[in-house]
Amino acid sequence: MSQIKYQRGFGNHFTSEAKPDTLPKFGHSPQKVNHGLYAEQLSGTAFTAPRAKNQRAWLYRIRPSVNHEPFRSYEQNRVLGSFHAHSPDIHATPQQLRWDPLVENVGADVDFVDGMVTLAGAGDTQLKNGIAIHTYTASKSMGRRSFYNSDGDLLIVPQRVPLLLRTEFGLLHVPPLHIAVVQRGIKFSVDFDPADSVSASNPAFGYICETFKGHFELPDLGPIGANGLANPEDFETPTALYEDASEDWTVINKFMGRFFCYNQSHSPYDVVAFSGNYIPYRYDLTKFNTIGSISYDHPDPSIFTVLTCPTDTHGTAVCDFVIFPPRWLVADDTFRPPYFHRNCMSEFMGNIVGVYDAKATGFVPGGASLHNMNSAHGPDAETFEKASNAPLKPAKVGEGSMSFMFESAYQLATTKYAIEESGKVQQDYWKAWADLKKNFQG
């Protein structure tokens, strides 16, 4: 992937040209573009959003996006993101849940779009408020198929097999231990390097968080100061790379939870240059600068937040994307695993690699757990006992591991697929806490 080039930074105004002298010069109208190109604006916020929040990009392309045949219903239509309480696709429960690896056993080959399934979510795509959590299993590249989502932004977490994202803005290589964010309305395809030998017996798998409201941003650092957590310079955006090809393409659109598509006779990736701050990006999770206690007690997991998508209530998120990387714990009189708690947020966790330090067994790579709003949870009995009696000295935890959490202010309704059809729910998960014994000596 050495031919792929990136620009660095988060939230910057980026410019990129695949052909010199494409971007309009000062005083020149973008409506009349050099090289016979079309100008097209893609907006990520309302035109009148505050300057600090305003997001948009100008794309200078060979043909405008409107140059396509009529929409039609996608032949493999299904609903992704309908969380009405009385929906037949919903099986809502406050029960603590954990799943075995969720990679699907694919018979016929499927690509990224056809391999998506929904586990949980909340809200309404039509009102642009809520969240959905999906997984994907893919055994082939998308080829001349492109996808864009009108319902929200997609945060993609590969668990196995690197992804090659072709986007309107260029290429992003996204291996495991990286994430990618592709915002609402941006067309992309998920392909694979032939060297990775993706097939029905060796499919790619990963997790997706879809946010219907707002966009991900870096969390404020507050008293932490200028340094720490995810550094803006470690985020990478693509550089312009266009295809000038007259060939048949299918473009698939997710709209109000359903899928539609249209045909066009040219590549959707014909953007010769772009400028703006509404651009997909990737991030290497191993570059996260973990902050921890060096005196006593156990800090809240908010110190592990990579990105946040805020609601209108200050300090409350549609989704906080949180990771639990390898880290040193140096503290006196501390209980090092997470404390027992009943959260006013809902917590969906996935395991990318290794062993999560708060669970002795059962939470494995490719698996997941969900502790919904106010459902009590914490370390299992074995971890509690071990941590309570461990010598208090500096310790490296999570060596060789990486887990993550989608934490949301919403109550997450689980889907019928997640509870009944996947066959992956660990029915005895509740027993993880059954051996917590009474120690009180009153």
From TrEMBL:
<dbReference type="InterPro" id="IPR046451">
    <property type="entry name" value="HgmA_C"/>
</dbReference>
<feature type="binding site">
    <location>
        <position position="347"/>
    </location>
    <ligand>
        <name>Fe cation</name>
    </ligand>
</feature>
<dbReference type="GO" id="GO:0005737">
    <property type="term" value="C:cytoplasm"/>
</dbReference>
<dbReference type="Pfam" id="PF04209">
    <property type="entry name" value="HgmA_C"/>
</dbReference>
<keyword id="KW-0223">Dioxygenase</keyword>
<dbReference type="GO" id="GO:0046872">
    <property type="term" value="F:metal ion binding"/>
</dbReference>
<protein>
    <recommendedName>
        <fullName>homogentisate 1,2-dioxygenase</fullName>
        <ecNumber>1.13.11.5</ecNumber>
    </recommendedName>
</protein>
<comment type="similarity">
    <text>Belongs to the homogentisate dioxygenase family.</text>
</comment>
<dbReference type="InterPro" id="IPR005708">
    <property type="entry name" value="Homogentis_dOase"/>
</dbReference>
<keyword id="KW-0560">Oxidoreductase</keyword>
<dbReference type="InterPro" id="IPR046452">
    <property type="entry name" value="HgmA_N"/>
</dbReference>
<feature type="binding site">
    <location>
        <position position="377"/>
    </location>
    <ligand>
        <name>Fe cation</name>
    </ligand>
</feature>
<feature type="binding site">
    <location>
        <position position="356"/>
    </location>
    <ligand>
        <name>homogentisate</name>
    </ligand>
</feature>
<dbReference type="GO" id="GO:0006559">
    <property type="term" value="P:L-phenylalanine catabolic process"/>
</dbReference>
<dbReference type="InterPro" id="IPR011051">
    <property type="entry name" value="RmlC_Cupin_sf"/>
</dbReference>
<keyword id="KW-0408">Iron</keyword>
<feature type="binding site">
    <location>
        <position position="341"/>
    </location>
    <ligand>
        <name>Fe cation</name>
    </ligand>
</feature>
<dbReference type="InterPro" id="IPR014710">
    <property type="entry name" value="RmlC-like_jellyroll"/>
</dbReference>
<dbReference type="GO" id="GO:0006572">
    <property type="term" value="P:L-tyrosine catabolic process"/>
</dbReference>
<dbReference type="Pfam" id="PF20510">
    <property type="entry name" value="HgmA_N"/>
</dbReference>
<dbReference type="GO" id="GO:0004411">
    <property type="term" value="F:homogentisate 1,2-dioxygenase activity"/>
</dbReference>
<keyword id="KW-0585">Phenylalanine catabolism</keyword>
<comment type="pathway">
    <text>Amino-acid degradation; L-phenylalanine degradation; acetoacetate and fumarate from L-phenylalanine: step 4/6.</text>
</comment>
<feature type="binding site">
    <location>
        <position position="377"/>
    </location>
    <ligand>
        <name>homogentisate</name>
    </ligand>
</feature>
<keyword id="KW-0479">Metal-binding</keyword>
<keyword id="KW-0828">Tyrosine catabolism</keyword>
<feature type="active site" description="Proton acceptor">
    <location>
        <position position="298"/>
    </location>
</feature>
